[in-house]
From TrEMBL:
Any matching Pfam family: Methyltransf_3
Keyword Magnesium recorded: no
Residues that span the membrane, as ranges: none
Record-linked SUPFAM superfamilies: S-adenosyl-L-methionine-dependent methyltransferases (SSF53335)
Example of a GO biological process term: methylation
GO molecular function, one term: O-methyltransferase activity
This protein's name: O-methyltransferase
Swiss-Prot/TrEMBL keywords: Methyltransferase, S-adenosyl-L-methionine, Transferase
Length: 225
């Protein structure tokens, strides 16, 4: 990627976001406070957040499951798609990140709809399953990439037929094509994509994107039954 390409990508994202996904004070403050707390700058772009919100709305989602809360920026976009009786459960590994996210969600008036569960998701998921929760309508996976296949497998256990699963960051600047990569994130993401391709209960695809987040992409998977 040349500097000229990067500048064009950033300019286009800025234009599209300002026009179609303008941030309000709650979203702006969430990014500001996340930055002040030293959280990594890996949140979705505003136009990507709006896409998640629209997908959840089209889905008619009442229950959303999120892997990777960070500072709650994507969580705000998603929670705003919920009805008043909706529920969003978000898994976050880092205690500090969860604290920032909860403050951001409360300020956005969404704390009543969202529960942030702290700790390794693969330890929290069996506990969630033991609660026999109402099946989820929408799942957003944006956590540690090495466990992407595990997260997709759990998503299939916890969703209803017709549910939508979104798996973020599946292109990794093109490195996803390297079958011999020893990068755990690449291997985990390839394994997740292969699961989506082969699982009888799933119909899915993936799209590469360019923008302020560089060259990446996302996968969409629909639970068939």
């Amino acid at each position: 990627m040349s500097r000229a390409e990067s500048r064009i990508w950033n300019d286009v994202d800025a234009y599209l976001s300002a026009l179609l996904a303008p941030e309000d004070e709650a979203l702006t403050a969430a990014l500001r406070d996340s930055d002040a707390a030293g959280l990594p700058h890996i949140n979705v772009a505003p136009n990507q957040g709006k896409l998640l919100q629209l997908l959840a709305q089209v889905q008619g989602a009442r229950r959303i499951l999120e892997f990777g809360t960070l500072g709650g920026y994507s969580t705000i976009w998603l929670a705003r798609a919920l009805p008043e009786d909706g529920r969003l459960i978000s898994f976050e590994y880092e205690v500090r990140h969860a604290e920032v996210a909860r403050r951001n969600l409360d300020r956005a008036g969404l704390g009543r709809l969202v529960e942030v569960r702290v700790g390794p998701a693969l330890q929290s998921l069996p506990k969630l399953a033991d609660e026999n929760p109402e099946p989820f309508d929408f799942v957003f996976i944006d956590a540690d990439k090495a466990n992407n296949r595990n997260y997709v497998e759990w998503a299939l256990k916890l969703t209803r037929p017709g549910a939508l699963i979104v798996l973020d960051n599946v292109v990794r600047a093109g490195r996803i094509t390297d079958a011999g990569s020893d990068d755990p994130g690449i291997r985990g993401t390839r394994a997740a994509l292969e699961l989506i391709a082969s699982h009888p209960r799933v119909s899915g695809t993936a799209v590469q994107t360019v923008g302020s987040k560089g060259h990446d992409g996302f996968a969409l998977a629909r639970v068939l039954y």
